[in-house]
């Protein structure tokens, strides 16, 4: 229940923030894929805490161990089990949270639903859970790139009220990784970093928007009804901690246009059906149309802030909480590889479904 994602390329994540470790079991990975721990580690390093001055200082190497599913450097087609041990736990930072609910975090709802919870760092609600998603997503990304040259690029497009100008070309990975905030526009990135440092010094936090673009997708991924490509992407993105909004293509902005302004005209180009604009964001009728996939995910300001806030105890008493512990003043820079991983998981799963239905039989 609730800990698995996907249909043919299926993952189950496990583990808590301050338990022994976190990880993922991947079912359905094709056999014979060349794979090393180092390739997966590269993606985990983009997600890990302590990587820059604007993220949580928790010191975790997030060193990956592959426990199963790999033999002589290639996948075997059997379940892959990937593990990252927790090393820098300081559960005493969370003593107050045993009794007091952090406003806008998961404490109250978990406590009420289950009658008990692991208050050390949020337990399962901690973003440490996303390590398993990023590890599995690294494998999905590799398969997608080998299969059809699919490239997935997420980046921070907005922090608080600082937004980068819309960009026509596909940003390179080097541009995204060039600054600690992962915004490919260097001047905007500087302003974002300054804002994050400013709110952090006030014991406060800010949110923002991650944009994601995918090129090299074939026409045909997705379903016309419930499992529409954008519906599955929306679920993937809204399943991330702190995400609050999802839009594909023109999104909410599209409501300001008329149909005549919003439609993407078709044109024949180099023997292929293309569109001259992309307000659809690469999806029409729930199915990829071969244009660039484009979607945006909004993340709220980090819930745990170091200022005193009004709250309630588990015994129902009004009280105040000034949180301690190590927190991200803005989750956006670390959310980038997580968004890419979830996109890869959705796209590979739909690629496998599409292949199974449309390419298996000789009629
Ligand atoms: C990369 C990343 C890092 C996060 N770091 C923190 C953090 O340091 N402190 C915190 O309170 N929340 C953090 N969060 C968000 C919480 O996990 C999330 O707000 C909480 O689970 C409640 O879920 P909700 O905000 O979706 O309702 C982070 C989220 C992401 C994606």
Automatic annotation (TrEMBL):
GO terms, biological process: amino acid biosynthetic process; aromatic amino acid family biosynthetic process; chorismate biosynthetic process
Protein name as annotated: Chorismate synthase
Chain positions recorded as FMN binding sites: 124-126, 285, 300-304, 326
Cofactor note: Reduced FMN (FMNH(2)).
Keywords: Amino-acid biosynthesis, Aromatic amino acid biosynthesis, FAD, Flavoprotein, FMN, Lyase, NADP
Native organism taxonomy: Bacteria, Pseudomonadati, Verrucomicrobiota, Opitutia, Opitutales
Entry's family note: Belongs to the chorismate synthase family.
Cofactor(s) the protein requires to work: FMNH2
Broad class of enzyme this protein falls into: lyase
Pathway: Metabolic intermediate biosynthesis; chorismate biosynthesis; chorismate from D-erythrose 4-phosphate and phosphoenolpyruvate: step 7/7
Record field: catalytic activity: 5-O-(1-carboxyvinyl)-3-phosphoshikimate = chorismate + phosphate
Binding sites annotated in the UniProt record for NADP(+): 47
GO CC terms in record: cytosol
Subunit structure comment from the entry: Homotetramer.
Enzyme nomenclature, EC number: 4.2.3.5
Ranges in coiled-coil conformation: none
Reported function: This reaction introduces a second double bond into the aromatic ring system.
GO molecular function: chorismate synthase activity; FMN binding
Origin: domain of life: Bacteria
